[in-house]
Amino acid sequence: MVKKSFLNLEKSTKISQIKKEIIRFFLNNGKNSISELSKELDLSVPTITKLINSMTEDGLISDYGKIQTPEGRHPNVYGLNPTSAYFVGIDMTRHHLNMALMDFNGDMVKTKFGVKYTYENTPASLDELCNKIEEFINELSPEIRENIFNINLNISGRVNPESGYSYSSFYFSEEPISSILSKKLNLNVGIDNDTRAMTYGEYMKGVVDGQKNVIFVNYSWGLGLGIIIDGKPYYGKSGFSGEFGHFPAFDNEMICHCGKKGCLETEASGLAIYRHVINRITKGESSILSDRVEEINKLTLTDIIDATNQEDTLCIEIVEEVSAILGKYIAGLINIFNPELVVIGGQVAETGGFAMLPIRSAIRKYSLNLVNKDSLFELSKLKNKAGVYGACLLGRNRLFSN
Question: What is the reported pTM?
């Protein structure tokens, strides 16, 4: 019944388009009264009332009862029916998966964080990914499974959400990876860049508080950039915007994983922190990680972040040095974009002040005073949840986009 109602919205009729506008209003503003909806859409109250009643009968909208007002009649408040549609988000990292199920209202119904999974750019790794997703979905009730509208997968690197191609991961054939996944999972699957998903998650559910022009820096193993302009994610021509880590910044001989030399993330990323820590411990410098020197190649960035937060002197020093380099280039972004808000997220950001203080200092030093005074600077509120929140929300948004 409900899925049929959603399919009816795809019809190119005036009524269907207005109903989609009503849904978009509730997606962006939450529960509200018919009078407010009438003002926003510039339609009469009787017209909106008729449409709301129809959508309530179809199971898309719920009546949440009356609200208290200072004077006059107490209006009824309407909103999306949370159980009418569900969205699955998958945030894929190098060593694990974060998975979530979100209802139509944007509330999390089920989450699984840190599911063991080792990413490799192989068909076998893709099959394992599908198995993990299927396991998650099979744990849901039949009623929920029936109303899952799409799955959205976060992938790092060059991703074109419109065409469904990932040019950095699982690029094995001429068929788009989104199409391959849709067939394997028997559900509609979309893909997006991991940093852009984190940015949108933070924008909708995190630290963003009314700002419409936002920059999100994903300070993790690599270095990514998410951009919100006038309240909308910026994709660029082919969905490849935000490759901040591959800005040509250094005259060094380090070959980046993209195949070029001198990329910013060779010196300003979790990868750079990891490389410096390994080199200096190998040369005999002291750290709480030193007793693992014989298994140094088994150390992970997570180990280094944990050691930093335990106030390991060597790790703190390296995190601060690398963060100061990053701050200089964020200053350049501020000069270019003049954003209302800059958010720092990702795994290295979990060191808090050890990364944030040198970044702030470098921004003050290198950005234009008249520009940076307009920009707030915040740590991610969602932290490791940003990606999976964003994956679900992008999937929901895509269903009702123009």
Answer: 0.91
